[in-house]
Amino acid sequence: MRRGVRGVAFDMDGLLLNTEDLYQQVGIVLMRRRGKEYREEVRKKMIGLPAAKAFGVLIEEEGLGDTWQQLQRETDELFENVLEEQLALMEGVEDILALVEAKGLPRCVATSSTRSFAERALGKTKILDRMDFVITAEDVARGKPHPDIYVEAASKMGIKTIEMLVLEDSEHGTTAGVAAKAIVVSVPNEHTKHGKFEGASVVVDTLLDTRVREYLEKA
Questions:
Q1: CA triplet 207, 217, 121: central angle to 5 degrees?
Q2: How confident is the model at residue 79 (pLDDT cuts 50, 70, 90)?
Q3: If you average pLDDT over residues 118-145, what whole number do you get?
Q4: Would you place residue 4 in the very low, low, confident or very high pLDDT band (cuts 50, 70, 90)?
């Protein structure tokens, strides 16, 4: 049975923006500088995690001598040119966001990325001004796959988590939304399609899928 939607929380990387593509490019350069390959099995483990945990996985798996903060700073530097040249919206974002706006629903971005990166990327695509607020991993005690970020999102919207639609592309994000007892629609991409999306109300290939709109049209 479908519950009524009174607010929408969007993941960012791989859901709103094509930044998962860009993270892969940057990761290749990051590891090449260290004489190593950016292994696919390691990259998959990192997707959807907060920076400290994601880079922690990389450090442990590859035996790196860097701290996660050092890797974060270097990644941010590498991203500068890539964002200017290649940043883009994922398919269907404009359509879904327009419908959310037409319904007058509160909306936010809930991302594992840092606030500085999220605001820079969202600002470049003009999405930032269309959101009520942004919550990052820095704003909660525990990042995804824990539910904290979505519990906080619902609280800031003034609604119950069971009334919030969560749009996610990753396994870790889906787990977080389900644990928060939100309505979760998973939209995996080529980087996350290997994941498990247990508990999601529906798994679709794109935000243009009519099943995504159905949740919002009845709001």
A1: 40
A2: confident
A3: 96
A4: confident
Which range marks the domain in which residue 94 is found? 7-18+88-217
| Residues in contact with 139: Cβ distance below 8 Å, sequence separation at least 6, in sequence order | 115, 149, 152
Cα dist from 129 to 99, 119, 125, whole Å: 16, 10, 10
What sign has the CA pseudo-torsion 73, 78, 83, 89? negative
**The two three-digit tokens of residue 47, written as one number:** 């997707």
Reported pTM: 0.87
Do 97 and 172 have their domain in common?
yes
Same domain, 207 and 100: yes
